[in-house]
Amino acid sequence: MFYPFGSKLPYHNLATLRGAWDAITSIAFSAYGKHLAAAGPGGVNVWNLESLQKIPFTLKQGERELDKAAFATAVWLHFAHLSCHVLLLGTADGHLQLWDYIEERLVSLQSNSQFLRPHYVLSVNVFPCHVPLGGHAKIVVSFADHFIWMGTLKGDGELKAKFSVTLEEGFMPKTVCFEPSNGNIIVFSMKGRNVTLVDSQTGNTVWRKTDAPDYMGSVSLDGPCTKFITSTPQGFGVYDLQKMTPLKRPKQQPVLLSIPKQACFDEENTKIIGGTDCGCAEVIDVKSGKVEHKLVYHQGGLVQSIAICPTSERLLVVIAGANGNQPSDVILWSKNRCLCGTEPASSQDLDICHLDIPKKYFRVGTYIILGMMVFVGYGIFILYSSEVCW
């Protein structure tokens, strides 16, 4: 497809990953976009994104079949000094499973199926995602019985509990995430307008805000941790984290299903990529709130799960469907990264020097140049014909 002069390079469909069944509720890239995990009530599937092949799991005797277990959430860790990728899976019956990637397969770590609570795992988050030599990762898990658990994981698979917190009745910790500057834990309640910051060393409450949005089905922070986007029954909303004031409501289509959809900021925090209930994900400009691109999901219906992964050359985006009792393909998209403040030039993307000039002037200039070329060419043809006749 040809795009007008001055247009931005669009997202490109890289691959369709098949094999998942039933709704996908969580999807996650490993470090550097090497692997992709998709989890949900129908089980969990993992693909190698270089070969686009599924990665098998190695099960021990007595363990449940992975494709028959309900998984609520998935997240990856990377131990850099070991070149080790670890997949953490939160289950619907309160387990945290840890799987180590070894030679094109995943094997369970010693702490696999660590029993935490007999309740649904709502959210799992890790910090840092890349663990340096001699370091350990912090892991926080939230449960449907108003309970938060935090522990640490070393590269050898040693999982240790650090503390646990029982929240008051009515505080449903739908989303937990680490603050990147200091590793403290931000807890977002699904209902009740509550957001709490928990000290990751002691489990004590640092601050609590009670003027957050009334309903926060899913939450994602921007890079500087100054604002967040959340899914509400009316659509997505962007809010200031400290003041809890609304910043912008994206101009989306009316919501048909009040099921929470995931959304996230891109690496520059200028775009939002979020799911919809109309068979696509939307790329939304944060400043204007306008939808700039639609990433179509060919099976239609609810697109609930979204994840992104910046690599050295491009931004990877994955979207997944949430239609029950049927195959759920996973669609992988990409967009060339903006390096050194410029977009890569191509036949589909001619943004001359990134001058802030309206596109219509480029089109008018193009027509003038083409007209001059035709006129000059016609003149040369007449002169050549005259010489031949002479």
Automatic annotation (TrEMBL):
Domain of life where this protein originates: Eukaryota
Cross-referenced InterPro entries: WD40/YVTN_repeat-like_dom_sf, WD40_repeat_dom_sf, WD40_rpt
Keyword set includes Lipoprotein: no
Membrane-spanning parts: 364-384
Record keywords: Membrane, Transmembrane, Transmembrane helix
Coiled-coil stretches noted in the UniProt entry, renumbered to this chain: none
UniProt keyword annotation of S-adenosyl-L-methionine present: no
Pfam families cross-referenced by the UniProt entry: WD40
Protein name per Swiss-Prot or TrEMBL: Uncharacterized protein
Organism: Collybiopsis luxurians FD-317 M1
Source lineage: Eukaryota, Fungi, Dikarya, Basidiomycota, Agaricomycotina
